[in-house]
Amino acid sequence: DEAFVRSEAELKRRAQRTLEKTTERLAHTIPNISNYPRPFEGLPKLRLEDLPPVAQDTFMRVARFEAEAWLKQEKQRFAWENAQCVRRKAQSSKLTEWHERKQRQEQEQREKEEKLARDQEEKEKEKEVKRRKRNEMLQKQLGEWAVEKEKREREQASAAEQKAKEEEERRRRQEEQHRARQKASLDRWYRHKEELEAQAA
To answer: Composition bias, kind Basic and acidic residues: at what positions (predicted)?
Structure first.
């Protein structure tokens, strides 16, 4: 509390402490007297009120200066600690934001990978459906082609058989006609021969 540090009672306490330290240092600077190594030992402590007003003012000014210096140092320390606290909070906030951003990015990446996997699975399913339909269509076309081929081969075989029968029938008629012509020719020859023999007789 600045008011307490600057209060008259606190300044007097500081001045008294400074006086005691000064007295102690001064005692150490005086050479020891023979058989009296500590000539000031046992004497009552010197009080600020025992000093002349001018000396009291001097010690009070020193106390006031030390108090102001201490307040300044404390303000600087407080400002530094506050800055450190703000910096730590900022770092903590940044770290929290980084973790949250990293988690969001990881979540987005997982969702993206899951979507890609689902899309790939859908594509594979579509490809499988298309492949099955294509195979079914090819099987159907192959069956129709086999039926058509068998029908065409039957028709060709039937046509060939019919043609062979017709050819056989034509050949048979030609042979019959040929034999009929030969028989007719032979009959004419016999008749002619008989006629010649009859004329000769």
So the answer is: 96-129, 146-201
